[in-house]
Every structure is written in structure tokens, then in C-alpha cells.
Amino acid sequence: MDSSKAVFQGLKKAGINFVVSLPCINLGKIIEMVDCDPDIIHVPVTREEEGFGICAGAYLGGKKTAILMQNSGLGNSVNVLASLFKLYQIPIIMILSHRGTEGEFMSAQIPMGEATPGVLDALEIAYFLPETPDDACKVLSGAWLLSEMGGSPVAMLLEIGFW
DSSP assignment of the chain, as one string? Predict the structure, then answer.
């Protein structure tokens, strides 16, 4: 199964009906699928904090939310994750294109790529590193329930080798 299609199918199986996205070459096909799905409200944004704020409001309005972004934006999101999502136990699925991992061609991506797991650990946010498209689909199909029951965001890190 195609990597992008597997992620999209996992989101659908999880019942996600509201997705915020930031531009990312690796996530581009998923973003297109989300944008074309009449059952999902898709809101493109330019800043991660803006996206998380919109998702918090959508969740409070009854939506099941996800955000599609690069891991480089995780640093921009630490405060909103700690002081809004963790504090008020708001669930969300974070699909992170994990740049800066093995095979990365852009050296500027490597420092945040290396820091990403530690940042998630410091925030006590569970994360998954699927190796195959089937793994991604299976993890995502239960991720919303895990996030909702735990009252915390859940992340999926999609490393370069995943694509």
C-alpha cells in the first residue's frame, strides 16, 4: 500500500473529521486526499500555533482533530501543547513528517530531527514510529481513542525512510 494512502486510511478509520495542515512536500499527497474528502473539514494554516488553536476550538465543537505538519514546527508548538492541550486534556493526532533523520539531504533539518523524540518525551506525549504503511494505518486507526482516553495529544513520526 502507498504510504500516503495508508496514513489517509488510518485517519479515516480513526474517525478524524477535522484536519489542519501546514505545507510539506512529504505530506502533500495526504493533504490533497484530506482536501478532497467531503467528510473532512480541512483548514490549511501558515503557523503551527494557529493550527493547534483552531483544532482545540474544533474539538470543543465536537470534532475529532488531527494536524499534519513537519517536526520542525514542533519547537514552535511547545507552549500551546503544554499550556492548552496537556493542561486541558484536549486530544489530537499529530502526523509529523520527521525531517532530519537518516537520509536527510538538508543539514538544517538535522538538529530538530534529532531533538524531536526528546521534545515529545519532555511533554509526555506518546509517539509512534511506523516502519511500513500497514503499521501506520494500524496505529492511526486506534490513535484517536488513545488520545481521547489519555487526555493528551498522540504523535506519529514519519521518518524519511517511511516515504
Answer: --HHHHHHHHHHHTT--EEEE---TTTHHHHHHHHH-TTSEEEE-SSHHHHHHHHHHHHHTT--EEEEEEGGGHHHHHHHIIIIIITTT---EEEEEE-SSTT---GGGHHHHHHHHHHHHHTT-EEE--SSHHHHHHHHHHHHHHHHHHTS-EEEEEEGGG-
Report if pTM > 0.90.
yes
By the 8 A CB rule, do 85 and 153 touch?
Answer: yes
Domains of the chain: 3-156 (3.40.50.970)
At 116-154, the pLDDT tens digits run: 999 999 999 999 999 999 999 999 989 999 999 999 999
Pairing of strands 126-128, 154-159: parallel
Q: Which residue has the higher pLDDT, 159 or 110?
A: 159
